[in-house]
Amino acid sequence: PEQRRFMAFMCQAETPEQVMEAKAQIVNSLRRRHRLGTEQPNDFRIQTQDEILKEFSKMSTVATSVLVGIVGISLLVGGIGIMNVMLVSVTERTKEIGIRRAVGATPGSIMLQVLLESLALTSIAGWLGLVAGTGVIELVRSLLGRQERWLLWRPLDAPPVPGQACHLAASTVQRWLDAAGRAALAGRVVA
User: Fold this and answer.
1) Which residues have C-beta within 8 Å of that of residue 184, sequence separation ≥ 6?
2) CA distances (Å), 184 to each of 61, 88, 118, 163, 171, in order?
């Protein structure tokens, strides 16, 4: 098979307006040097900074899409886990819920209790996840011996309020519809 050699050259135009003219001159010069006819394709490639930035932007868009998918799946799995915990909690406390209903608690107050418990559980788990993730990142960074900041932002430097708010809203609604609804609809228990 034919073995190819690769070389890379970096050139700079005097002004940004001259980039396209410089690119055309380089193409003409390389085509003459490689003795390419007018019908032959280039056997080289030239990229400007703008083209490299466009490719990087495409790659970052794909990476962001993959990460959004992973986060969405994680949110769903976490939601199912918390829903099961809350359901077991409600099932184990059927007697307590029955007593509360017997002394006059409304279905709304029982739902509110389960909702607040779900919010507390989700908030604590979310913050613990942020702290644990940051700890792992810092541990890996120190093991690699890197002192520079290789992330664009550090997780605890920026407030995670928007992400946590979305997570809380989604998980709370999911838990509320299941566990709280079952708790509120539970029949009276004779104690």
Assistant:
1) 107, 108, 110, 111
2) 45, 15, 15, 30, 19
183 with 97: CB under 8 angstroms? Answer: yes
Nearest alpha-carbon partner for 173 in 128, 118, 120: 118
Alpha helix positions (H), the chain: 19-33, 49-92, 94-102, 107-144, 161-175, 181-185
Q: What angle do CA 77, 83, 85 make, to 5 degrees?
A: 105
Each residue's pLDDT tens digit, 26-81 = 888 888 888 888 888 888 888 888 888 888 888 988 988 898 899 889 888 888 88
Both tokens of residue 103?
A: 């002394």
User: What does the angle CA 107 – CA 114 – CA 93 come to, to the nearest 5 degrees?
Assistant: 85
CA distances from 12 to 21, 22, 71, 81, 149 (A): 11, 8, 42, 56, 29
